[in-house]
Structure formats: structure tokens, C-alpha cells
Design goal:
The chain is α/β, with parallel strands linked by helices. The chain has two domains: 2-205 and 382-429, Metallo-beta-lactamase, Chain A; 213-377, Metallo-hydrolase/oxidoreductase (Rossmann fold, 3-Layer(aba) Sandwich). It is 29% helix and 21% strand. It is globular, with a radius of gyration of 22 Å.
């Protein structure tokens, strides 16, 4: 088995791993980079109007023969670990005959993102990969394992071929609401691993104030219990663990959790996978209709759901009248100042910022300060801590550990055993 990491040996995001034998080739993830070659935030607008060949010349798309639209198919499959753009965002360029394997949750979330976001993947040959069941793809035997991550229904992959066993961690953690999955993995790990590709997103970052999702829930509960004005939640609607934490906090203090149509749709679609996910018609949940969300959902053929959601609809005057009990899900976009203008006496309001702090801009902090809105950062990472990375690598005992999805690959030899450093596009024969 031959391994090539086309992107990811020295950066977080843009993950793309190729595995090949003499007669088979597969990819593990095919994501958009988070940073440019100059380490500046990647501008997704640069993709607009450019051909595959142009994007290859710009070193944005990797040179992988037989992968892209318009080329003769030479890749047997692409496996997607989870539904974050830095792991699936380039699927729009894949030759349509190539099957794209992922979990059911990832498939649903990618389809939902196509409805509501500007970066659309379009029609792909999507196939659902069963968990803990060996699947044959060419020369490769693939076993998908569910992992704890901020992306719903995220997977790691055990790949076997030509007598070798490779384990791709994908993105994972040990402190989310599915931490039992990490415990099971470390207590009963896959055996005889020749190569472990292990992420290290948290290396080099400051220690977390909130160690797990339960700590996040308790902190949010405390804020809601003591507030006297409206509170806003800044969080990803696709971070289902966080939505669950927030909902539980709202229930415990009898706050009204106001979500938007986009979030209501996500929760509704994922209800088929997990019945424990809060729904738009559960107690303490109301739905705010924004024109853009309504139009996109109606245009996608789901107008009937708008009638369902309207049974829990809440308008801005009611939000204002009940603001001492309201926690409203919003984001740093054009909708936020519109909502703020409809809240009388906004001074003393609170933003519970439950995302990575790197997204919080000085401009937005200045806007909040000017309007008397306090920002409280309450977040725990979707990625494994150093302690959990060590437990993970010690449990799997790989003959070779290859860094991926990290800006701190140079730290791996000091922290872990049997480390093999690779460069992007460097081939390794296992």
C-alpha cells in the first residue's frame, strides 16, 4: 500500500490523502484549505469561474490523475470523514462516476449546506458507508468507526490492503457528548496498525477554559440564570453537540431557545438518525423566520416544512417582550444588527460566543462594546487535547505515526512515538 498526503502534513484544513495499490486508488477526504500558501485565511471566492486546470496551476487543487470532471475515471472512491468544508469542500470537482462514501449524517448535512450556503457541491455519487462493517473497494477493505467530534456522525477509517493496516483518525476528540466512543476506541483499539494518520489541531493552542460539553452546558446555564436582558448564542447550527448543550441549559432555567429555519431544518432532517436531537416543536423552542432562509427552503421543494415550523413561529416584537427569558441563535452577519435594532434597551444584553475564538473579529467586538453588549466566550474544541492524542496513539501502538491536519507537525517527534514526517505530495510505501 502506498500513501500520499496531497495536503495536510503542515496545515489544518484541506485534507486530502491518497492510498494506492498496483490496481486500486482511493482518497480519504477532499477538503478546501483554511489558509493560503502565505498562511492567510483562504478566500473561497478565488474558486469562482476557474477551471480545474487553472486551480491545479494555482496549486489549489492537487494534481491527481483521473479524479476530476472531464477526465477518465482512475480513482475508485473518495471517503469523507465528516461534513466540514475543509474535509469535503472540493467534491464539486470530482468525476461524477466516482462513488463518494460517507456517513448518513454527513450526507444529510452536505445536502442541507447546498440549500443554504453559496458554496454548493451539487450532484455527487454519494453512498452511505455502514459503521463497523468491512466494505470492499477495489483492493481495499474499509471499516468505518464513529468518533466523537463537533461534526455530527463523524468517522475514522481503518484501511487494509496488501497485508498492511492504516488507520486514519479524521477529526476527533474525547470530551464531547459522545466521549464514550473515544473510551471504547482506546480500551479496545484496532490491532496491528502499520500506519496511523493522526490529527493534531489542538497542538500549539492555549488550554481550554471549558474542558468538555458538560462544562459548556453548565456555564451557559449560569449565564441564563443570572441575565436580565436578551442573550444571543453564536454557534454553528451543525454542531449538534452544542445545540443539545444549549437546549438542556435552556430547559433547566426555563429560557426560550429561539432558532432559525435553517437550524430547525437541520434538526428535523437528523431526527431520522438520532431521536435525541432537539426538535422545533419541543418545549422551550421557538422558530424565527428570516426571509433568506424561508426563500431557500421553499425553492428547494420543502415548502411543507415551513407550514410545520410556523406552528412554533416567533416574531421580533414577542422576542422583545420576553427578552429576559430569550436566548436567540444568531451569527456575526447582516441579520444581527437588524435584530438588535428591534430590541428596546439593548444595553446589558449578552452574546454567548460558543465558537472558536479566531472567528471573533475586532470590528465585531467594537460594535458590541459601542452598543453595550457583553461577549462571553463559552466553548470547547471539536478536536482532541494533547492528553487524548497521547492516549489515542499509545492505545493504537502504530509502527509509524504520520502527522496530519496540524500546524505543529514538528512537535510530533517530541510528543509521540514512531513518528514519520512527510511533506505534501511525498509518497510513502508502507
Amino acid at each position: 500500500m502506498n500513501l500520499t498526503i496531497h495536503r495536510g502534513t503542515k496545515e489544518i484544513g484541506g485534507s486530502c490523502v491518497e492510498l494506492r495499490t498496483d490496481s486500486s486508488r482511493i482518497l480519504l477526504d477532499f477538503g478546501i484549505p483554511l489558509v493560503s500558501e502565505q498562511k492567510e485565511p483562504f478566500d473561497i471566492k478565488i474558486l469562482q469561474g476557474k477551471s480545474v486546470e487553472k486551480l491545479k496551476k494555482l496549486r489549489i487543487l492537487p494534481r491527481i490523475k483521473g479524479l476530476y470532471r472531464g477526465e477518465e475515471k482512475e480513482v475508485d472512491a473518495v471517503l469523507i470523514s465528516h461534513s466540514h468544508l475543509d474535509h469535503y469542500g472540493f467534491l464539486r470537482y470530482v468525476q461524477p462516476d466516482i462513488p463518494i462514501y460517507m456517513s448518513e449524517g454527513a450526507r444529510q448535512l452536505i445536502e442541507i449546506s447546498d440549500i443554504f450556503t453559496t458554496h454548493q457541491i451539487g450532484n455527487i455519487n454519494a453512498k452511505v458507508l455502514p459503521k463497523m462493517k468491512k466494505v470492499k473497494i477495489g483492493d481495499f477493505d474499509i471499516t468505518a468507526r464513529l468518533v466523537d467530534h463537533s461534526a455530527f456522525d463523524a468517522l475514522a477509517f481503518l484501511v487494509e490492503a496488501e497485508g498492511k493496516r492504516l488507520f486514519y483518525s479524521g477529526d476527533f476528540r474525547g470530551h464531547g457528548r459522545k466521549s464514550i466512543l473515544f473510551k471504547r476506541m482506546t480500551e479496545n483499539p484496532p490491532k496491528n496498525i502499520d500506519c496511523l494518520l493522526m490529527e493534531g489541531s489542538m497542538l500549539g493552542r492555549d488550554k481550554q477554559i471549558y474542558k468538555d460539553e458538560i462544562s459548556v452546558q453548565m456555564a451557559i446555564e449560569g449565564i441564563l440564570r443570572n441575565k436580565t436582558n436578551i442573550a444571543f448564542l453564536f454557534a454553528s447550527s451543525q454542531n449538534i453537540d452544542r445545540i443539545v448543550s444549549v437546549y438542556k441549559a435552556c430547559r433547566r432555567v426555563n429560557s426560550i431557545f429561539v432558532i432559525d429555519v435553517y437550524t430547525a431544518f437541520i434538526l428535523y432532517k437528523l431526527n431520522n438518525i438520532s431521536k435525541n436531537i432537539p426538535q422545533f416543536n419541543w418545549s422551550n423552542i421557538r422558530v424565527k423566520f428570516f426571509k433568506d432562509h424561508v426563500s431557500k427552503l421553499a425553492d428547494s421543494g420543502h415548502r411543507n416544512l415551513l407550514y410545520m415550523f410556523s406552528n412554533r413561529k416567533i416574531e421580533l416584537p414577542e422576542i422583545d417582550s420576553k427578552k429576559s427569558r430569550v436566548l436567540m441563535l444568531l451569527r456575526d452577519n447582516s441579520l444581527f444588527p437588524i435584530v438588535v435594532r428591534h430590541i428596546k434597551d439593548i444595553k446589558g444584553a449578552t452574546i454567548i460566543y460558543s465558537m472558536w475564538g479566531g472567528y471573533l473579529t475586532e470590528k465585531f467586538k467594537g460594535y458590541c462594546s459601542k452598543n453595550g453588549i457583553e461577549i462571553r466566550q463559552v466553548h470547547t474544541s471539536g478536536h482532541a487535547t494533547l492528553e487524548d492524542l497521547k492516549s489515542f496513539s499509545d492505545a493504537l501502538k502504530p509502527k509509524i505515526l504520520v502527522p496530519i491536519h496540524t500546524f505543529e507537525s514538528e512537535e510530533y517527534p517530541r510528543l509521540f512515538k514512531n513518528v514519520k514526517m512527510l511533506k505534501d505530495s511525498e509518497a510513502l510505501d508502507l
